[in-house]
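Sequence in, structure out. Go.
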Amino acid sequence: MTTTDDAPDTSSPLVVATRATPHVGVLRIDSPPRNAFGRAECLAFIAAFEEFTQDPDIRCLVVTGTGKSFLSGANLRHQEELTPADFEKYADSNEGLGSIMARIEAARFPVIAAINGYALGGGLEVALCCDIRLASTDARFVCAGVNVGLILSWFRLPRVVGLGRAKEMLLSGAMYGPEQAERWGLVSGLHDPADLVPAALALAERIATRAPLSVEATKECANQAFDLSTAEAMALQREKFLQMIATRDHGEALRAFIEKRPANYERR
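Output:
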């Protein structure tokens, strides 16, 4: 969550979409002063994200923020205007942060969060939905639900940092720095502010040079890892293995390895 900021400047794009390389996209949140998300920001993010989703050439996406914030969650000024009759509609909206989270988790390609600054409340939850999280030394993390009388992050955060550490963050609503976030496994790497996005792009490009169907299947399966029994996991492994071994990209990967050259994948 965030504080009740002034209305964002909508004279410029709220979310800037670019393509760093042929297979890597970038979404930069740019809604000053704090990158808090109201309806306009959510719609802008969803539209840009969907364009990447529908592009078969995109193999990895980097999400980052502008200024001092990665994403400050929902704009509380908008929530303050809700009436009791609006609560369920707001919670179930397909134009809010919940829809963004679902899209990130369901995306066929990996999404890397390059956390440049504050990740507060729903902003932290969006980061948790990403497959990989890198952070700037300027990053700060707050599970802000208890600070504003709401509830959030209790499902995803324990899966990332463990139940005990998650409860400390969730129940205290305190601010945590980047070094502790890295120690606890909330992020997998720390970088100086100027190096954050280049590091995320380098990792994204590395992922983009792997066999794309294999990357997509691996993300899909890993997302289910904590919910499957051993028997279910082994059955899923067999199913996906048989699918992958029959692909043209698997054959290309073998030839490239033997010939000691980069692979030229076709995503089929």
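Check: The chain has twelve helices and ten strands. The beta strands are 15-21, 24-29, 60-65, 69-71, 111-115, 118-120, 132-136, 140-142, 175-176, 189-191.
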